[in-house]
């Protein structure tokens, strides 16, 4: 398999990546909303049944998947814009309820929308440090976002989807994919 190309994208990095993050957050919010609705219909307490649910014992729970998806978005916003979001302030990972998780996703999506309006300056070729597979690497912002940030974000959104699906929430592929085709952000 050929190595990924680091050739510049035909779009700016922000034009390419920000809609993926914004729409993916929309998909994540939709998945969480469906989980809450299903719990309500079944007379379940979503906070007790889902928030700490895992696919397997050694994988982190739903709350972590949501928090880390959002942390990944903000880390990549930092890389693309040069702004520093306070990852220990409003993103301090203290959510304990389904409602708090939904609010966190909504807040992150609004922030991405604001950045989309600003059309941030290009930092695409600036070098940044990342850790991938336990290995520290120095890569361009473009490489960090394309080959580390977006896959990491999608991994956590997919895992959140899978946890709720495994807990019986009637989610289908469309619940996941529709968010990425723009029904929330564009």
UniProtKB/TrEMBL annotation:
InterPro entries: DinB/YfiT-like, DUF1993. The keyword Coiled coil applies. It comes from the Eukaryota. Keywords: Coiled coil. Gene3D superfamilies: dinb family like domain (1.20.120.450). The keyword Electron transport does not apply. Residues 91-118 form a coiled coil. PANTHER family: BLL2446 PROTEIN (PTHR36922), DUF1993 DOMAIN-CONTAINING PROTEIN (PTHR36922:SF1). This is DUF1993 domain-containing protein. It comes from Podospora pseudocomata. The lineage of its organism: Eukaryota, Fungi, Dikarya, Ascomycota, Pezizomycotina.
